[in-house]
Amino acid sequence: SKLTSLGHLEMTWRSRVRFHPLLVRILHKSRLRYYGKPEKKMDMPYQAYFEIADGSGMMSMVLWNSLCPEWYHSMKVGTVLLLDKYGIKTSYPFKTHPTPGDSQMKRFATIEISLNVRDPPTEISIIPEEMVKPEWGLPEVKYRFITRSELDDLPNNHCCDVIGLVTFVGRAERARKKEQSEDFWLYRWAHAIDGTSDQPFILELFATSQPEVFERIHPMTYLVCTQMRVIRDLTENPSRTVYLTTSNESQIFITGWHKGQPYTKDAKVKNFIQWTKSQNEADQIKKTVIGGYYPFPRPPESFLKY
């Protein structure tokens, strides 16, 4: 059928009612958002953002309501979609944006693709990877992997991806989203090593929309975390308090979930796998810890400093 491109859509969307189908690849995926309120009677008040791209550039796509339970888990980073009968809206100005792996890619920020059950009912097809043709010109998923030795030179709020061997994982903890609020964030701390430094990655992992992964992080698993943000306490010793925290677009993968993921082709991931083959498993297991309370960043040694 006749296809259109994201770039062409941005130029012509105001003058059209009917749009040609789109062929795109998912580059980023947000966590699932629940926006239900007691006074509003909605069956499935869910929403999820994706960043999709074709040969012309990248744009946001929003999955709404009952399409979320139906499609959210099938739409993975790297998945190729054929979309028809989609809607177009002006972009929501306050949403978060992931940092693209390819800094040269053009971003279309004025509009976003809207996938709904009705008005119009969107037709979504997933194209299996083996059927994707090079001549379609779809971009590959690119990452920003760093090693632990590179972390100390990165600025606060820098976005990166990491892979490491888990040596510590703490219990799940809760923090109030706002004071006096009944809503909580669920998170846990983890340490992961990659052989490039004596220090581990310190990871603050908030529960993403992957409970089956979040609950099964354990020592000796290979952990991949994407779209992580560098956090530094610039007042204290900056190198001592550097850690990474998840963002709205973070994805977490552990041993058993890596097969077929786009990052398996990344050079730094391959280097890490080579390093793990040189390690003695019994020696590493002796250094691992699980559970317990993990106060971080550490409080000062004395009350005067506090």
What does this structure look like?
The protein has 306 residues and is mainly β. It folds into 2 domains: 6-136, Nucleic acid-binding proteins (OB fold (Dihydrolipoamide Acetyltransferase, E2P), Beta Barrel); 148-305, Nucleic acid-binding proteins (OB fold (Dihydrolipoamide Acetyltransferase, E2P)), CATH 2.40.50. It contains 6 helices and 16 strands. The strands form 2 sheets. Strands 1, 2, 3, 4, 5, 6, 7 and 8 form an 8-stranded mixed beta sheet that branches. It has a 5-stranded mixed beta barrel with strand order 9-11-12-14-13. It comes from Origma solitaria. This is RADX protein. Pfam families: RADX (PF17659). One of its GO terms (molecular function) is single-stranded DNA binding.
The CATH superfamily title of the largest domain: Nucleic acid-binding proteins
Fraction in beta strands: 25-35%
Describe the biggest sheet? 8 strands, mixed
Q: Can you tell me the overall shape?
A: globular
| Class from secondary-structure proportions | mainly beta
> Would you tell me the overall average pLDDT?
92
Number of helical segments with 4 or more residues? 6
CATH class of the largest domain: Mainly Beta
The succession of helices and strands, N to C, reads: HEEEEHEEEEHEEEEHEEEHHE
CATH T-level topology of the largest domain:
OB fold (Dihydrolipoamide Acetyltransferase, E2P)
The helical percent reads 10-25%
Low-confidence stretches: none
Distance between termini?
A: 66 Å
CATH architecture of the largest domain: Beta Barrel
Write down the domain tally: 2
Number of strands: 16
Radius of gyration over alpha carbons?
21 Å
Organism: Origma solitaria
GO molecular function: single-stranded DNA binding
Pfam family, one: RADX
Protein name: RADX protein
